[in-house]
Protein 1
Amino acid sequence: MSIKIAVANVKGGVGKSTIATNFASISAMKGKKTILIDTDTQGSSMAYREARSDAAAQFQAVAIHTPTVHKDIDAFNAEHVFIDVGGRDTKVFRSAILASDMVLIPLTPSQFDIWSSEDTFTIIEEIKIGHEDLTSTLMLNMVISGTNLSDEVHQILNDFYDKYKYHLFKNHLFHRVGFKESISQGLSVVEIKGDKFKKASDEILTLYEEVMSYATENK
Ligand SMILES: Nc1ncnc2c1ncn2[C@@H]1O[C@H](COP(=O)(O)OP(=O)(O)O)[C@@H](O)[C@H]1O
Ligand SMILES: [Mg+2]
């Protein structure tokens, strides 16, 4: 069985590439046949693949900038597919979502960012017409450690839930410098050596398990 997850948001800087590259690396470490598809013209996931050491567990990465992802995806024959879907509302964006079983939308816990992510929800609602089995999920990224999420953020998330019914993952990622440092070496925070990566590593592994279980159950 294959699991296909689009990590998508038209809003930039929310952590799509960080999550897609870390998840693909973790799947490869677990011995899953994995492919990372980069549809974002910024090419962050492809740069990560290029930087990745030969000693690390390998996965295939391809950049697709034509609206052909939904046509090509099964031919890759991978167990785990992660699609880094950024940029604007384009045909490529829609093709990537159409190709997926589940869309994972990273949000940062700021009101402005959550508001600007609403465009993404609108696009997904349109795509769902004719693709009702798409599972839509949200996760919070870059939560500042030691702070509680503000009441406003909770309120916004609750309002979104009432309106769209997207599943919000229980686990989230804190803001950890390790994410920036590991990326340049083409390694996930789980693979890179050093105590300073420990918290980020534990947190992303916990989130990964939650996301993959949910994706499997809802396939
Ligand atoms: N949990 C995190 N903690 C710290 N920095 C993060 C985290 N997630 C992402 N970043 C950093 O934030 C920036 C934007 O993340 P990125 O994954 O490139 O977002 P996107 O692909 O949505 O544009 C990058 O510099 C990345 O290293
Ligand atoms: Mg990106």
Protein 2
Amino acid sequence: MGHHNDEQDLLADLVRLGGVVALTGAGISTDSGIPDYRGATGAALRRHAPMTYREFTHDPQARHRYWARSHAGWPVMRRAQPNAGHRALAALERAGLVTSVITQNVDGLHGTAGSRQVIDLHGRLDRVTCLSCARITAREEIRVRLDAANPGWAPEPDRRNPDGDVDLTAEQVATFTMVDCTECQGPLKPDVVYFGESVPKERVARSYEQVDAASALLVLGSSLHVYSGRRFVMRAAERGIPVAIVNIGPTRGDDLAAVRVDASVTEILQGLAIHSDAPEAPLESTRA
Ligand SMILES: [Zn+2]
């Protein structure tokens, strides 16, 4: 742990009172090897602009390219494990101090770490939806079908993007065979919210309910660049609910924060869990 400062003491006091709702972003998963492309060095990690919802749904070639890159990147994404920060946050929930987690991440690592009350604001990369009939399938099932449809197709990726895809050559993309929905032969889409796509209303409403009932909103590892997450900070501030932000580097919610800690999310969460006597719990499940 680094040295303690006044802001960290204020943060510990807030958390000790309980009723904390956490809003997490890419910064909590960087220690699990998932790069934060919005962070200081992150922009350089991404050669392409992220695909928009319109491009995905209207451009079959772009969709094919996406699936080829995503399938190539999936083995590593699937192996990602929660880090000490995810586990500390789950421990704070078991200790009764954190009531729920609203996450902007699509990696599913909060659940793997043992957090129970999780709202996956932007969906989950381990689920796939059909654009025609909306049937949800486990990504692992699609992975098995894609492996069967692509014998010997195993490109060595050189770049990895935070949503789990990798860069491939045009030839690697061209030789990839995609599969369709088994129910209706419709096109498949990862069950994540794309740029230009709205978060489902019901999910937003549940998130607002959590924030409205919170004693404090704790932002962890998000620059709050995207309105989809920032709106909850604005809501808390409107309602006089204190906002604490832990993030390396400035965020777009800093002017609304009662407490601002510029430090590693993992270290700060570990410190909070230790000082609140949160029970150390076994990992309930790890990914295969
Ligand atoms: Zn379908």
